[in-house]
């Protein structure tokens, strides 16, 4: 009677221990639905593929890339839907599969001794063949007679070391010959060939009295001012931390970040602009210095609308 309840209690505890821990995917999916956003909109806002966003919501860790990238995906997803990213990352660390360390195997040693033995045997065979050829030629030249002294000379000639290539010393330049007779200064042929002493003294005195004639005046050139930015000026004033995304008419993302409260962000581009505000009431929008009312496009705290300036008239509409 006692063993039955104890066994049941232990099996229940084992089921509690073995029960899988919930991941962050369900919380992200519920927050996305509460924010009235589709999976396609989240993928476009986070610059991810549709399969990655679906895998995040299903906690399919085997379909996701390395954990270092998944942590960034979860952090940006949480900021977009207004959740705490630290708690979601902790849940992901609990449910993700452990990383398998790489197994390092020792590299097999190269067969250096075998190669060396092969080379040594090959060298010995070549030397024996050369010695045999020398003996045969000597025996043929002497009419079939060969003495011990001849064998010694053949061995010395075969095994004699090859002389090293001589190193030539660098050649020194030959100085030009100096004439024995110096030219006479009184020679009329040399008079007038060089500058006179009077002219050189006059030039030195002019240089000393007027140094500005030698040094040229350098006038600094001022750089041209940068061109003024063209397009519409969009200014965002934030009273709280808000996820903001602004895309111009060419599809260029001018803003794609979590902006801090108490700051102002101003961008310039060609309209119309596609604007996404995570907390719409915490953002004051101005276009070309004129205030924009976006309360009509707010749904559960998130505003998504198109903004343009048509000949001085501010125009807002649904995307």
Short structural description:
With 319 residues, the protein is α+β, with helices and mostly antiparallel strands. Helices cover 39% and strands 17% of the residues.
Give the SSE layout:
Elements: H1 3-18, H2 25-34, H3 39-46, H4 50-57, H5 67-81, H6 85-95, H7 112-141, H8 148-159, H9 197-209, E1 232-238, E2 242-247, E3 253-259, E4 264-269, E5 273-277, E6 283-287, E7 290-292, E8 298-299, E9 302-310, E10 313-317
Helix pairs in contact: 3-4, 5-6, 7-8
Number of strands: 10
Low-confidence segments, ≥5 residues, pLDDT <50? 1-6, 14-18, 193-202
Q: What separation lies between the terminal Cα atoms?
A: 70 Å
Order of helices and strands: HHHHHHHHHEEEEEEEEEE
Report the portion of residues in β strands: 15-25%
| CA-atom Rg in angstroms | 46 Å
Percent of residues in helices comes to 25-40%
Structural class: alpha+beta
Could you say which overall geometry the principal axes of the C-alpha atoms support?
A: elongated
Average predicted local confidence, pLDDT:
74
Q: Biggest sheet, in brief?
A: 6 strands, antiparallel
Total count of helical runs of at least 4 residues: 9
């Amino acid at each position: 009677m006692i063993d039955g309840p104890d066994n049941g209690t232990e099996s229940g505890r084992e089921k509690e221990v073995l029960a899988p821990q919930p991941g962050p995917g369900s919380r992200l999916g519920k927050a996305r639905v509460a924010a009235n956003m589709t999976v396609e909109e989240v993928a476009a806002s986070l610059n991810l593929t549709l399969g990655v966003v679906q895998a995040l919501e299903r906690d399919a860790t085997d379909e996701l890339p390395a954990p270092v990238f998944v942590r960034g995906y979860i952090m940006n997803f949480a900021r977009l839907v207004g959740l705490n990213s630290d708690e979601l990352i902790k849940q992901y660390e609990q449910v993700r599969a452990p990383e398998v360390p790489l197994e390092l195997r020792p590299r097999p040693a190269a067969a250096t001794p075998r190669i060396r033995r092969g080379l040594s045997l090959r060298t010995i065979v070549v030397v024996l063949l050369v010695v045999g050829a020398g003996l045969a030629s000597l025996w043929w030249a002497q009419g079939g007679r060969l003495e011990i002294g001849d064998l010694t000379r053949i061995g010395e000639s075969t095994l004699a070391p090859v002389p090293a290539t001589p190193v030539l010393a660098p050649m020194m330049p030959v100085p030009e010959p100096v004439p024995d007779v110096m030219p006479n200064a009184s020679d009329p042929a040399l008079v007038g060939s060089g500058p006179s002493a009077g002219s050189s003294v006059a030039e030195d005195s002019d240089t000393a009295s007027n140094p500005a004639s030698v040094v040229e005046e350098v006038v600094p050139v001022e750089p041209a001012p940068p061109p003024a930015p063209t397009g519409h000026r969009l200014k965002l004033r934030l009273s709280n931390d808000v996820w903001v995304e602004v895309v111009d008419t060419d599809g260029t993302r001018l803003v794609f970040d979590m902006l801090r409260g108490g700051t102002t962000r101003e961008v310039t581009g060609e309209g119309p602009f596609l604007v996404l505000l995570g907390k719409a009431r915490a953002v004051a929008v101005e276009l070309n210095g004129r205030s924009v009312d976006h309360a009509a496009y707010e749904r559960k705290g998130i505003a998504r609308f198109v903004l343009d300036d048509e000949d001085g008239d501010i125009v807002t509409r649904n995307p």
